[in-house]
Write a structure and sequence with these properties.
11 strands, 2 domains, disordered N terminus, Lyase 2-enoyl-coa Hydratase, Chain  A, domain 2, alpha/beta, 2-enoyl-CoA Hydratase, Chain A, domain 1, 7-stranded mixed β-sheet
């Protein structure tokens, strides 16, 4: 395995690991002294990095995390929020949406690695990822109403993830949700001891690497479309994408390998 570290002058650190089966990227929101709180610079760095990663054909998955052990991100920096007015608020929140949309539009799967606080914008960023793994130190909250503003933009993803009842509870009260509650609600798919978190994520990475790269990208595209389209429209589009998979030799190669494995198992 060869690792290439690239640290930009901003507040997000990118590391790319090149494997035989493709590349894995790890993005770290790096403001540990401020609980990785989101600033305009963090937002710009996320947009830039995810848009650049989207151009990497060999990219197989991305891990998004916060620096240190105390927080994935505690949400938008309250000093920034306090400085906003009616006009600057529009720019800030629109750019935050653009950052999360860049995560959602990335062709490869994005995994949120969550330790400690995952509040507000942090929970929306995590919601924009494809998979979410947390350890038992994680705490979740949408506390915007407690500081006089509503939860907006990608908070709209929460009902599909945790249901309308839990969404209303979080958004209307600002109360916190434990890691165990987040697992039960369906916000995270994996919960473990902090020492095991990287191993749990690695198991997902290993499974992704077993799959056809083009097939995974097509599947993520389909899932994103299913969120927005009617059932009938989704079925029609999926037929087109199923045929598209056969435009390369990937299905034949992977099926040949699967048949060989089945043949060996049958012999045994």
């Amino acid at each position: 395995m060869k690792g290439l570290k690239m640290t930009d002058p901003g507040q997000v650190v990118l590391e790319i690991k090149e494997l035989n089966a493709g590349s894995i990227a790890e993005l770290t929101i790096s403001r540990p002294a401020k609980l990785n709180a989101i600033t305009p610079q963090v937002i710009e760095d996320l947009i830039l990095n995810f848009r650049q990663l989207s151009e990497m054909d060999e990219l197989r998955a991305v891990i998004l995390r916060g620096a240190g052990k105390r927080a994935f991100t505690a949400g938008a920096d309250i000093h920034i929020l306090q400085s906003l007015d009616k006009h600057s608020a529009v720019k800030f929140i629109t750019q935050l949406h653009n950052a999360i949309e860049a995560i959602r539009l990335l062709p490869a799967p994005v995994i949120a690695r969550i330790s400690g606080y995952c509040f507000g914008a942090g929970m929306e960023i995590a919601a924009g990822c494809d998979l979410r793994a947390a350890d038992h130190t994680a705490t979740f909250s949408m506390p915007e109403v407690r500081v006089g503003i509503p939860s907006v933009i990608e908070a709209v993803l929460l009902p599909d993830l945790i249901g309308w009842g839990k969404t209303r509870e979080l958004l209307l009260t600002g109360k916190q949700m434990t890691a165990e509650e987040a697992l039960q609600a369906g916000f995270v798919q994996s919960l473990c001891d902090p020492r095991q978190l990287d191993d749990h994520i690695q198991s997902w990475i290993d499974d992704i690497l077993l799959c056809g790269p083009a097939a995974v990208k097509l599947q993520k595209k389909l899932i994103s479309n299913w969120e927005q389209s009617s059932r009938n429209a989704s079925i029609v589009e999926s037929i087109i994408d199923f045929a598209q998979a056969y435009e390369t030799d990937e299905p034949h190669r992977y099926m040949a390998s699967a048949l060989e494995t089945l043949k060996m198992k049958t012999k045994n």
